Amino acid sequence: PDTLKRYADKGLADKVKVVVTAGTIGDGNGGQELTAVLKEHKYDYKFVEVDEGHSWGAWRGLLDVVLIELIGPETPRR
Q1: Angle at CA 7, nearest 5°, toward 13 and 4?
Q2: Which of 10, 25, 35, 53 would staple 47 via disulfide (CB 3.0–4.6 Å)?
């Protein structure tokens, strides 16, 4: 609840980009609740839900998605 309140109250929408990842196994609905707040306050965000639990395996599998979303795709070397 504190995290949801911070994103709703702080006026950060024009300052940050957010990537939310969640699993369908044992993660509850926190990801959906957070993305609802982000959408309502017009944040630049991406939500990715995977068919896994809250584990390193799930995070490892999404690390490339998160990094590309936050910093962009790799630029070809010359």
Answers
A1: 150
A2: 35
Give the Cα separation of 7 and 15 in Å (integer): 11
34-76: pLDDT as tens digits: 999 999 999 999 999 888 887 888 888 899 989 999 888 876 6
Tokens, residue 62: 């999404």
Which residues touch 7 (CB under 8 Å, ≥6 apart)?
18, 34, 37, 38, 41, 43
H or E segment and range at residue 18: strand 17-23
Token look-up 């839900």 returns 49
Instruction: Write the CB contacts of 69 (distance below 8 Å, at least 6 apart in sequence).
Output: 17, 19, 46
* CA 73 centroid distance within chain: 17
Q: How many CB atoms lie within 10 A of CB 45?
A: 19
